Amino acid sequence: MTSLKLNNGSVALDEEGHLANVDEWSEEIAHALAERDGIPLTDDHMAVIRTIRAYYEKNGVAPMLTLICKECDKSYKEIRTLFQKQPGKRAAKFAGLPKGTGCT
Fold first, then answer.
1. d(Cα 6, Cα 20) in Å, to the nearest integer?
2. Would residue 88 count as lying in a domain?
């Protein structure tokens, strides 16, 4: 495991850079994870990330990308522009969710 340094301490990450403990997530962590991937988060990014978090907290799983698009009123192309390659996986990672077990 590695750690992600924050302004007030650090948090553990798994070997692929996902937050080790989903309950430790904060918006500061989202920004730090995105920064590691070279993506400065905007309000549009955070709206998507908050939608993913809310869905995960209610259902215990990450939402499908089609649902994210619908809930955020964004096209797949817009989500891909925001999060670049593998937008659903990357957005879920920034939202502090564990690595998905579905499609690779």
1. 15
2. yes
Q: How many CB atoms lie within 10 A of CB 22?
A: 14
For the cut 50, the answer to whether the pLDDT of residue 104 exceeds it is no
Q: Is 103 a catalytic residue?
A: yes
- What are the distances in angstroms from CA 61 to CA 1, 51, 67, 92? 23, 12, 12, 10
Q: What is the pLDDT confidence band of residue 99, given thresholds at 50, 70 and 90?
A: confident
Distances (CA, A) of 84 to 19, 22, 71, 88: 20, 23, 19, 9
> In the chain, what percentage of residues exceed pLDDT 90?
81
Judge whether 100 and 62 are in contact, CB under 8 Å: yes
Tell me the angle at which helices 43-59 and 76-83 cross, rounded to the nearest 10 degrees: 110
Please state, in angstroms and rounded to a whole number, the distance separating the CA atoms of residues 92 and 97: 6
CA gap 79, 30 in Å, rounded? 16
Per the structure, the count of domains in the chain is 1
The whole domain housing 65 covers: 2-94
